[in-house]
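User: quick one, fold this
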Amino acid sequence: MASRWRRASCLCSRSRHRQDARVEASIRFAVRWQAVQLRGQCAFFGIQRSVVVMAFHGFISSRNLSMA
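Assistant:
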């Protein structure tokens, strides 16, 4: 009786371990995906900001030239 219960609990813990591993892998994947997304967003916003700054400087310099 005890050996049968032990075997059942071992099987149960094994399946639970497999499920935990799957959950852990999915969490790891989600974290990696989020990091990649954040990096992409930072790069995108950095490019956007530099373009905006360049356009702003160009606008100011053109206004200065037209004023002078």
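User: anything notable?
Assistant: The mean pLDDT is 78.
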